[in-house]
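User: C-alpha cells for this complex, please. No commentary.
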Amino acid sequence: MTIASVSHIDYDTTPENLSAAQAEFSALLGPDNIDEDQETCVAHSGSRFASADSAHKPSLVLYPKHTEHVSSILKICSKRCIPVVSYSGGTGLSGALAAPHGGICIDFKDMAKIWDLHETDMDVTVQPGVGWMQLNAELAGKGFFFPPDPAPDARIGGMIAMGCSGTNAYRYGTMKDWVVSLTVVLADGTIVKTGNRPRKSSAGYDLTHLIVGSEGTLGIVTEAVLRLTPIPKNPHVAILTFSDTHLAVETALSIATSGAVFDALEFVDQSSLEVVNQSGLFEDRWAEYPTLFLRFSGDEATTQAHSALIKSLSERNKCLDVKISSDPEQVDAWWNVRKLMGKCLIMSMKPGDIFLASDAAVPRSRLADIIVETQEATADVGLFCSTLGHIGDGNVHVAFVCPQELRAKGEQLIQDVQRRALRMEGTITGEHGVGLSLRDMLIEEVGSGGVDMMRNIKLSLDPKGILNPEKIFRIQA
Amino acid sequence: MTIASVSHIDYDTTPENLSAAQAEFSALLGPDNIDEDQETCVAHSGSRFASADSAHKPSLVLYPKHTEHVSSILKICSKRCIPVVSYSGGTGLSGALAAPHGGICIDFKDMAKIWDLHETDMDVTVQPGVGWMQLNAELAGKGFFFPPDPAPDARIGGMIAMGCSGTNAYRYGTMKDWVVSLTVVLADGTIVKTGNRPRKSSAGYDLTHLIVGSEGTLGIVTEAVLRLTPIPKNPHVAILTFSDTHLAVETALSIATSGAVFDALEFVDQSSLEVVNQSGLFEDRWAEYPTLFLRFSGDEATTQAHSALIKSLSERNKCLDVKISSDPEQVDAWWNVRKLMGKCLIMSMKPGDIFLASDAAVPRSRLADIIVETQEATADVGLFCSTLGHIGDGNVHVAFVCPQELRAKGEQLIQDVQRRALRMEGTITGEHGVGLSLRDMLIEEVGSGGVDMMRNIKLSLDPKGILNPEKIFRIQA
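Assistant:
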C-alpha cells in the first residue's frame, strides 16, 4: 500500500478521551499503577542515547502486571484511538520510544519474571521487563547463558522489539536466533501465542520472527520463550594493537574466514580508546591505536590453536602489541572496557552536546573501505568521532559527540555513513533499528516496494495504527 | 481477519480466460516455454512423497528465464484472477504443490544460475532452480558449503518456500538461518529486494524471513543471496546400535547438552533399517535395532575428545555396537544410508500403497516419550511404520507405507502423532511445512488468533488470493 492510498488515521488524544481512558485504566490496574507525572512521561519518550523530546511524550505511563492487563489496555486504546508505545530498558538509539502523537506508554518494570527453565531443552520463559544481565546472572549456576548482549541495561522486551545483537552475535547470531516463540498482544487486544517450545518449526508464517525487530508496531510482546546455550568453557581474551586500520581489519578477516570458531571479533579505533582513557572508569591506560578485542574459548587444544593463529596473523600484519589472557579477572576486565565504551562516550559529553550514532553494516570485504572512508570524511570537520564495532559481522558503529550548533553537520555525516553502507551492499542499521531517525532512509535500502509491503502488513494487523505510530516508516502522508 | 469476514474470492479459470492468458504468456515467453501437456500438468501438482491429484492440477506450466518474466506473469494472473503455484525440485511432503483451484504453475528449471560468489563475505547469489547438491558441488573447490540438506533433489526455491532443514540443522540451523536476502515478486507483479548482503540488519520488518516458509503464498522468490560456511575439516561418522529406544535417546541428549559441538545427531529405528536392508541399495547389512547416526568434525584434539565422549556414553548406556570412522569413503557411505532412507521407504511401496508422513517436533526432553508412545500406538495396527529423525532438534519423522484401504487408519495415526507433539509443547511440523495436509490442524498450534494473523498478512499482500491458494490456512469459508 503506497502511503498516498492510506485512508486518514485519526488519533484521539483530547483531554476528554484521555481522561475517560485513564478512569478505565485505573479500574483495571489500580491508580498506583498509572503515572501522569510529566517528568516520568518525558523520560519514557527517550533513552540515554536518544534524547527525549517533550513534544513527543506520552500523557500517561502504565505499569501492567500480566498479559491480560496488556490485552485490556489495548482494547481500551483501540476503542479510543489512543497511540501506545512500550518501554522496558530505555537504551534504544533510534528514537523508537518517542511518542509523536502522544498517547500512553506501557512500562514493563512489573513484568520481570523468569520461569520454566528447562535444562534438557535449554530454554526458559521470561517477561519483557527482564534484563539480559539479570537473566544471565540467574542462569550462571546452571551452566547456561543467553547470548544476545546489547547495552548492559537493555531488557528482553526492547531487545525483541529492536531485533538487537551485540558482541556475541558473531558466533551466536542475533536476537531472532534466540527467540523460540512469543506471546503477543495485537492492537485490538487479541492474545496470540506464536508457538510452543520446539527447537524448530515450519508451521505457517514465521510470526515469531516477524515480531522480532518490528519495534512494537505490530504487537506488544508479553512473554518470550528463549533458547539458551552452555556457557563457553575456558574463555580467553586477546587485545591486538595495530598502527593502521587496514592491518587490523585484515587480521580480523583472516580469522573470520579461517574456519576457527571465535566467540567475538571487535574493532575499536584510537578515538574510542581516548574516551576510555578519559573516563576514569578503568585502571589501565590503553594505547590509543586501532585495536582488536577478540574472545575465544574451548578446550586446551582449541584455545592453544586459536592463540597460535592470533600470533601468526599478528606477526604477518605487523601488530604493535599482542596480549592474550585466560585469567578470569583479566578476561572480564578487558571485555568490560569494550562493553562500557558507549558509557565512556556519553561521559565525554559536555552540557549541551548531542550524541549522534550510526550502526551501518556492510559485507565484511568492504569493512576497511567504510571505516577508512568515514575516518577521512570526518577528519577535518571538528567533531569528535568514534568508530568501533562488531567487525566479525561487518557492523560498524560511528558515533559523534558534538555541540548543538554542529548538529546539522553531524547528522549529514551520519547519513553519509549510512549511504556509504548502501553503496557497499550493506544496511543502514545492523542492530539498532529504524525508529524515527532512519524511517525516511529505509526506502533507499528496501525500495518503495519493500516499505509498502511493510505498511500493508502493519495496517492489516493494526488498522487504526495505534501501535508505536510513525516508527520504521511513515504511516500516512 | 476471521475466515468468515473475508469477502468472496473469485478465481477465473474459464477456458476463455485461460486461453486469453495463454496468448499473453506466449507473447512473453515464446510458445516453447509453455506446456499444456496434461501429464506434465499433473506431475507438477505433486511430488514423489505427496502424490499428485489430477483434480488439483494446473492447466499450464510456464518456464520463465528471469525475474522480469515472473513479474509479467504475475501481472497477467493478477489482472485475470488466475491462481499461481511455483515448482522447483518437486520433493515436498505436504501437498504445497497441489493446485486445488487450477490455474498455472511456474517451473524454475530454466532459472538455475549461480553467480556472485563472494569468498571473503561467504555469500553467493542463486536462482530458485538451483539444487542444494549442485550448489555444494560447485562450491566444494572453494572450501565452502551451504548447510541446509533436505531431500537430495530439493532446490533452493522450494527450500525457501518450505523453510526446510535436514540433518545439518542441529549444528547449523534451518533454511532461514542461511538466507541473507531475497528478490521476491508479489502477487501484483511488484519486484521487492528485501535487502543487500550484510550479515545482519535491523532495517524494518524482517521481510526475508517472512517469505522463508510462506510456501509461495506471499510472493514468488526469483533470486536469493545465501550465506555459506567453511566445509568442516576431518569429518567423522559414528554409528551406535542400542537394544532400546530410551537408551539411544538418552545418549543423544547427553551429547546435545554436553557443550561439545557435533555436526548432526540422527536417530533411526529398527523398521527404517529393515527397509534399508531390503532396498538392495547398500552393500552392508545393518543390524535392525534403534541406531544413532552421529557426525562430528574438527582438529585432531576435538575429534578425539568427541570419540571419547561417544565411547563413554555408549558404555554407560549399554550400547550393543559402536563404530566410528574418519575414512572419507566410509563416512560418505554411512551418511548416505541416512540420507537415502526416504528413497528406501518409497522403494518399499507396493503398487497401490500410499505414503503418509509426519514430521512433528518436540522439546528434546520429550523425545523418548513421543517415539515410544508412537511405536506403541502403531504396534498392532498392521501398518508398516518407520520412525527416524533429527533427534538433536527434537524432530521426529514417522512414516507409514500402507495399502490404500487402510488410508483412513494411517491418516488418523499421523494426526495422533501431531496432536501428541502439541501436548508435549511441540509443533505439528518441524520442517516439511503445512501445505494442504496440515492446514486444519495449524489452528491447534497457533490458535485462531495466530491463523487470523497469517490470513491478514496474506490478504494484505495478495488481496485476490492468487498465490498458492488454500495452502497453510483456508483462505475463505
